[in-house]
Structure formats: C-alpha cells, structure tokens
Amino acid sequence: MAPLEAKQGSVSDSLSKKSYLTRLQHFSFAGVFALSIFSISICLGLIYPIVTIVLKSDAMGKRSDLVVGVFSALNSLAMMTGSVLGVRVMSRFGTFPTYFAAVMVDVVLIIALYFTIGHIFVWLLIYCLFGFISSIPWVVAEIWLNTIHNEKYRAMCIGLYTTLLGTGLALGPLLLSIFNPLHFPVYLICAICGSLNPVILTLVASTAPDSESSPISFRGVWSALKLCPLFPFVAVFFGGIHVIHDNLMIAYSLDMGLTQAVAGQLLSVMLIGNIIFQIPYSIILKVIGTRNMLFSVLLILIFSSALIMLGYYLLFLTTTHHFPSKGIQWYVAHEIIDHILHGAMVLYGAAVMGSYSLPVVWVGSGYPASMYGPATTLYLFCTQLGGVMIPFCLGFAMKILPQLLYICIIGGGMFMLALCAVYFIFSGGRLQIRFISDMDSDMESICTEDGEMETALLGISPEESLV
After folding, report:
1. Which residue of 92, 151, 224, 454 could cross-link 375, Cys pair, CB 3.0 to 4.6 Å?
2. What angle do CA 240, 242, 244 make, to 5 degrees?
3. Cβ-count burial of 380 within 10 angstroms (0-12 exposed, 13-18 middle, 19+ buried)?
4. What Rg, from alpha-carbon coordinates, does the chain have?
C-alpha cells in the first residue's frame, strides 16, 4: 500500500480540480466532451451496421445469422476484457495519452477492415481487437467526467454527453443510405470522425485526472462490489437492455409481419427517444436522486414495453384478415394504434438511454474519487456481460415465440424492481452499505439518507469530503 501522504495528494488533486471550476467552466468542459463523443459515436453508429451488412454480402459469402451473432458475441467479450484492463493501462501511461493512443489504434483498425474484406478470419480478428481497444476510451472518459464534475453539475453534464452520444449513434446508420458499405469512402468517414475525437479533447487535456488518483486492482473491484452489491445486477440488466434494439427489435418487427421500412422507422423513432429525454432526465435526476430515478427508469421500461407489445399486436390485427373491413373505422383504428406504438417507442428509447447514463452518474455520486477506476471497471464489465448474455438468451426465446422478447423484458424489469425494493429496505434506503474499503483501510464510507457519500480520510478535514 502506498504511503498515506501519497494517497492524500492524489485524492486532493482530484478534489481541487472539482472545487475551482465555475458553473461556466463545468458546462464548457461538458460541451467539449459532448462534441468529442458526438464525433466518435457517428463512427461507431456506422461501423457496427457495416459489419453486419458486409458479412451478409456476396463479398463475404453471404454469411448466416449465426456468424453475425458470433462476431457480435466475440466483440462484446473482447470489450469486457478491455474494460478490465483499461484503467490499469491508464495508470501506467497516463489518462490522456492512453485515450489518444487507443482511439488512434481503433482508427487504423477501421481502415484495415476495408482492406481485408473477403477474409473472414482476418476480419474476425480485427473486429475483436477493435472491440478490445475501443473499450479503453470509454473507461477513461467516464472516469474523467466523474472526476471533473462535482455532485451539483454531474447529472446535467453527463446528460449533455449522452444526448450527443445518442445523436451520433442515430446519424451513423443514416449515412449508410448514402454510402456503400463495401466502398472505401464510408470507412474513411469512420476514420475521420474517430480521429476528431481525441483532437477535440486536447482542448481540455489539462483537466485529465491524475492517473494514480483512481488505482485499479481486482481487490479494488471487489471493494467496489461490496460497497454496493446492487450495482452489478443493475449494470448487467441495463447492459442487456441497451443492446437489444441493435438487432432483436428489427427481428421482432419482421416476425410480427411488418415490412423492413416500417421496422426501420420504428427503430428511428426509438432513437429519437434516446436523444430528446437526456437533458430532462438529468434535471429530474438532480431533483429526485439516483435511487428514485432508478425506480423511474425501470417503471418506464416496463410500461413502454407493455405498450409496444399491445401496439404490435393490434397493428398486426389491422394489417391481416382479422380486421373485418377497411372502411373509415379501419383507418381511424390504424392511425390510433400507429401513434400509440410510436409514442411507446419514444418512451422505450428514453428508458434505454437512461439505462446507460444512470449508472455513470451512480459511479460519480456513490463512490469516492479513489474508487472511480474500480467502480467504472465493474460497471463496464457487467454492462458488457449483460450485452452478451441477455440478447443471446432472448434470441433463443424468440425462436420459440417472438412475443417472448417483450414478455422477458417486462418480467426482467419487474424482477429488478423487486430486487431494488428488497435491497433498499435492508440498506435503509441508501445506495451503498457501510463498510471499510479493502482497497484503502484509511477510508470509511458513510452513507447519508439521500444516498450521497460522505468520506472521512485521515488527515483530511470534513470540508474536503470527496462528494
């Protein structure tokens, strides 16, 4: 264990960076981060559908859905591994150098994908390496955000960050209607958008947290798990929910008899929900707190999923022989059902993006600065684990009955509601439980009624508390 003086220095550095920022500076830094994530999210919004389209094309021998699934699963497994090692790399080489190098390597790998089209095993290797490397900037960026922004501004700033993240992810697929995924220009656009990300972040490179202020070890991750045992369960569930719409929602729409155009339209409507609700989410989160926001997101997810199931079923009836005629009543019913389904998709999209931003805020609000690294690693690892397990299980369930997709989502949401309720009953309504961190025996974490963290460090006054 490092000497206490060293620990106090690194933590104090993180505290001072939070304390001297004005309101304008907080939102200026948030704007730079949001702009940088917008550029790289366009890149990611392009590359993932490109991989699926190219694998299904003649150039790759029209591979089956199984091959596409294998690519997706192995990429997620590579991201899980990268999320565990990302903070260790940051601790060794520094925050901004690690971020810059990881993004530049990803840019090179994107170009390499184009030049290796037709070589399936080389593509798989490059795609897995891309997943491994791309997880490192996410770990670093979320530690960076939580370190810079204090409790007063964190939710709003992360809301701006996730708003432009959702916008970029939605714009990426739209570019595929203009560019051929088998031609070089689309890969060049991906590379340019990816390269802009670290270049933009050079504007705030001086605010990068000390690479030693958030040490990472497996013991530290275990400490983060013990501090809040509920957190990994929420991360696994939300991780699965967050990636379902990438492929299973389209498959569900087609199984219910809708055309590809209608299925794509509904997915676009859901992505709109991803975008427009992030700032309102952050405002509400600041008022009601993380615990109540967790329940709200789960309730919105359950309610919107039930509405989507109902809307799909009624829309299916109006487009088949089950509806008696196609007179004025048919058109009125069809329009009402269509609007209900679109509204439910917007709400579902809000819940999906809320499932990403809420745990990020949770890390900053519920853990001391010295545990941002382990907590972020735990979060991203569990998110990727859910992203592998849940879609895989739901895919098998949909082969039995397509409607099981939303039945399982509703059931999972209800289970999480019950689990959260039981946890908060035993924790006295707090996000964390009281314990002495195994990672730092000099720090005792004490939870207040509203779930915020107060910490007492030897040699640090109460005015310098971590939150």
Report:
1. 224
2. 70
3. buried
4. 23
- At the fourth CATH level, which superfamily is domain 1-215? MFS general substrate transporter like domains (1.20.1250.20)
Per-position DSSP letters for 77-99, written without gaps between them? HHHHHHHHHHHHHHHHH-HHHHH
Superfamily of the domain at 217-467: MFS general substrate transporter like domains (1.20.1250.20)
Structure tokens belonging to residue 467: 């939150």
Q: pLDDT per residue over 322-363, tens digit each? A: 555 566 666 777 778 788 888 888 888 888 877 777 777 777
String of b and e for 29-59 (b: at least 16 CB within 10 Å)? bbbbbbbbbbbbbbbbbbbbbbbbebbbeee
**Where in the chain do CATH 1.20.1250.20 domains reside?**
1-215, 217-467
pLDDT of residue 329: 64
Hunting for tokens 């059902």 — which residue is that?
337
Helix (H) or strand (E) holding 456: strand 453-457
For the entire predicted model, the pTM comes to 0.71
Distance separating alpha carbons of residues 9 and 4, to the nearest angstrom: 9
The Cα–Cα gap between 47 and 439 comes to 39
Among the listed residues 149, 142, 150, the one whose alpha carbon sits nearest the alpha carbon of residue 372:
142
Cα 119–Cα 125–Cα 128 angle in degrees, nearest 5: 135
Of 332, 309, 328, 312, the residue nearest 320 (C-alpha): 312
